[in-house]
Amino acid sequence: MQGKEQLNDHWDKENGIYVPGKGTMEIEGVEHQFLVDEVKAIPERPGYPTSDRIITEYAEDLSQDPDITVVLLPGWGETTAQFEGDFLNILISSMRSAGYSNPKIVGFNTCGKGTADYMENDQLISGTNYAKESEDIRAMTDYMCRRDKKLGENVWVLGHSMGGLNAMAFLRHMEVRGNISLASGQTARKVNGVMAMMPSWNERLALGLSGKFLNSVKGQIPPGAPQYVTGKGNLHLTQEQHIKMMFSGQEDEATVAQYLRGNPDSARKFFDITLTFRRQWLDLFERGLAKGTEFHFLKGGQDALIPVSAVDAGYRYVNKHIGDTARVTNTEAPDLTHSFSMEIIGLQREQLEEYLAMSLGRKA
Questions:
Q1: Residue environment code for 86-101, b if the CB has 16+ CB neighbours within 10 A, otherwise e
Q2: Which residues are CB-contacts of 318 (< 8 A; sequence separation ≥ 6)?
Q3: Domains of the chain by range and CATH?
Q4: Which of 6, 109, 232, 248 would give a disulfide with 54, using CB separation of 3.0 to 4.6 Å?
Q5: 257-266, pLDDT tens digit by residue?
Q6: pTM
């Protein structure tokens, strides 16, 4: 792993924020450009911590059209900064191994995560919920599609944990915002693939069918419940809680470094996803499959938060209701925990590389 503490000079670990700007960083021995862009993606409105949103971009040459773009959607309490260690290296390397010459990664940080305004306002953080999260995905998708930002024609989306739900929101919004002929003359885009890693689907689709999910999160419910009830709602996990939840208690320098790149999040949003959320996503699967979109689930055998059974339940549900799921895969990585530390080595690295190679296939 290169630089646990400072992979580039645009993440301020002391304050938990991004510093907007451009720079270069070495990825798999090749110099890549990166951009940390703080944009006014949504209008100012009550109940949002800030109207500013952080969007990150990585490519060998950001000025050129990419031949594949992966939109990265972190989960609850996460920022894209937590994926800038070995995960970023492995993802770029996997896209190159699949035959792509100028792969690009675009990261969305929802609800103001990574900004100073977000970190300084506990009360407004507590007001965010999943409906606002989904609206943020729409706004940032619109920003990238309408403001001459280069997504390219071959777009994939990778959602981790709750980012799996956000990936489905991205798919829906791309149908409206991306799959059109733009005034600039760019070719219409579609989402070619969805990679859902340790996905937190809605309860009706998967979690409620398993029953084991609630057992896995019951240790996180007590610290969040009082905050939810009192209205504070800012559930900032301690380092010990984070490592127990995300890494099954595997504490080392790399998992601690990953913790320092996260942000507090809304207890209300946590409860929305784990207990009460009821949105039905089956129609999106059907429409996506009809348009040729692939869906690739990844489940971690050592995941203490999203059990393998919950991911399996979601897969079975889709298989039962859609039938033809040749473009839907469900892969288990026996040694992966719920999240990815800044250092991914050994069997964990091998299993992640195998999943990405299978998902991305080969460039046509």
A1: bbbbbbbbbbbebebe
A2: 282, 285, 295, 325, 328
A3: 11-359 (3.40.50.1820)
A4: 109
A5: 999 999 988 8
A6: 0.89
